Amino acid sequence: MRRYGKHTDEDDVRVRPNRKGNRPRTTIRPKHEDAAEGFVLTVDRGRLTVLVDDRPVVAMKARELGRKSAVVGDRVAVVGDLSGAKDTLARIVRVEERSSVLRRTADDDDPYERVVVANADQLAIVTALADPEPRPRLIDRCLVAAYDAGLEPLLVLTKSDLASAETLMESYGSLGIRYVVTSREELAEGAAARRVREQLEGRITAFVGHSGVGKTTLVNALVERQRATGHVNAVTGRGRHTTTSALALPLPEGTGWVIDTPGVRSFGLHHVDPSRVIHAFPDLEPGTEGCPRACSHDEQDCALDQWVADGHADPQRLYSLRRLLATRERREGD
Ligand SMILES: Nc1nc2c(ncn2[C@@H]2O[C@H](COP(=O)(O)OP(=O)(O)OP(=O)(O)O)[C@@H](O)[C@H]2O)c(=O)[nH]1
Ligand SMILES: [Mg+2]
Ligand SMILES: [Zn+2]
Q1: Is 183 in the pocket of ligand 1 (CB under 6 A)?
Q2: Is 309 helix (H, G, I), strand (E, B) or coil?
Q3: End residue of a domain, out of 232, 260, 288
Q4: Which atom of ligand 1 lies closest to the CA of 230?
Q5: What is the b/e burial string over 267-303, where b = at least 16 CB atoms within 10 angstroms of the residue's CB?
Q6: Which of 28, 32, 137, 210 has the smallest number of Cβ neighbours within 10 A?
Q7: Overall number of domains in the chain
């Protein structure tokens, strides 16, 4: 802001925080009071598509946002040409406070965080039962990221026409995670979409998972839309990274949103705070009161062993918590 000089922007002067004393009401009023509200649907190389009154409007960040970025799911304030007509470009002047932020780092040593989506309240962790092979470690990592961000996890197991869901379910049963299983036949006849939809009503759900697991196929079935899907390479067993940008789509005749995201190779957890992960284990959380400061919950003096020994919680749950916390220390492919 400073580079505009002293006299150009009176608003900036007025909103500068005055920590001492009472501020008159007007000084906290945001700039651009006439701005429209928008919801970010997708971001593509600096161009954002924002839903304004049911109209998709292409916009870019106003310079005053500085380094602050807007991501899919963000609620923003937009000004300028909001007609949505071809070749128009509106400006995003404000990003509203986020109710949640789903982050990931490329790997655990990478301090560079990317925000995957904002304001989601559910994370659909999509895993194929075969083609590509399920990788439980990635599921665990996504669970940790979900708990850290305060999103409710939903496990979506696809391609049950190719392999059974049994073994995978055994290992997640004790975590008490909601799950749905889908197959090609059920996708075709609509049963898969119906079952998944029950879990999506009224929520903003981000779909994440490896490339080729069927995220876009499922989202297409849910919203009756045809976004491109890809094939899984028969030799490498990998997807082709068909989806290259996150896209939010409204559920038809519903109140929920689904967000399709590009396939990930890994889900780095550099940013995760174990104390936030434990919120997802309300049966264990009170037991941590007796823990030493900054307890990793996987050390000798951890009070949780006594907590389960005293019958306050199922020992399986402590095992699960430790497995998830340990996932941060382990490498993706282990
Ligand atoms: N057999 C079988 N194949 C499926 C099923 N669901 C999706 N597929 C296939 O899996 C392949 C990959 O599907 P996509 O929806 O493109 O996968 P994606 O997760 O969106 O992949 P990226 O966009 O690369 O991250 C396609 O050939 C789909 O037809 C299923 O239930 N059964
Ligand atoms: Mg896709
Ligand atoms: Zn502890």
Answers
A1: yes
A2: helix
A3: 260
A4: 16
A5: bbbbbbebeebbebbeebbebbeebeeebebeeeebe
A6: 28
A7: 3
Closest by Cα among 201, 143, 124, 145 to 320? 143
Tell me whether residue 255 is annotated as binding. no
Q: Do 185 and 137 share a domain, yes or no?
A: yes
The widest CA-to-CA distance across the chain, in whole angstroms, is: 68
Average pLDDT, the chain: 85
212 is in an annotated binding site: yes
Choosing from 229, 232, 264 the residue with most ligand 1 atoms within 8 A of its CB, the one to mutate for a pocket test is 229
pLDDT tens profile 94-107:
999 999 999 888 77
Question: What global pTM score does this model have?
Answer: 0.83
Q: Which of 67, 95, 123 is the last residue of a domain?
A: 95
Which residues, including other chains, have CB under 8 Å from residue 186's CB and lie 6 or more apart? 192, 195
More confident residue, 56 or 317: 56
If asked whether residues 74 and 106 sit together in one domain, one would say: no
237 domain-assigned: yes
Would you state the pLDDT for residue 275?
78
42 lines ligand 1 (CB under 6 A): no
- For 55, the domain range is 36-95
Cα 117 to ligand 2 centre (Å): 16
- Please write the tens of the pLDDT for every residue from 265-324: 888 887 787 777 888 788 899 999 999 998 889 889 999 999 999 999 888 889 888 888
